Amino acid sequence: MQEKNQLELKEEKRKMTKLTKNFNLSEFESKDGSKMPEDVLENVKVHAYNLQTIRDFCNATVTINSAYRSPTHNKNIGGASKSQHLTGNATDITVKGFSPDQVADIIEGLIRIDAIEEGGVGRYNTFTHYDRRGYKARWDNRS
Ligand SMILES: [Zn+2]
Question: Which one of 15, 64, 140, 141 is separated from 103 by 20 to 30 angstroms, measured CA to CA?
């Protein structure tokens, strides 16, 4: 029993791990509580640096609505079968004081000047999707 508590404490501590100045690991965990695989964690760490650049450029709070999704969670919410969220390379974000459309424009601009990595930028009514898939992808799902 004591050993389990120690494991739980270790897991708690892991989730509080700071990835960058303004982001910690807990913000990237799958919403269903699934454990994040190590290869996903490595992707999340790199993705977080890109988000920090977006955060610094906007000088405003970035809220992560969705980051890593376990295969089960992704299926449950009807995510794409090859979603970048499965690899820890994607986040859906909002930035305080900016519309989702403005956030998408800012991300596109930061990609253009190589401040953040090329990848997917998705426009939605209430959030902006950004991923570092390694090639350019753009879509507009606003209604
Ligand atoms: Zn997304």
Answer: 15
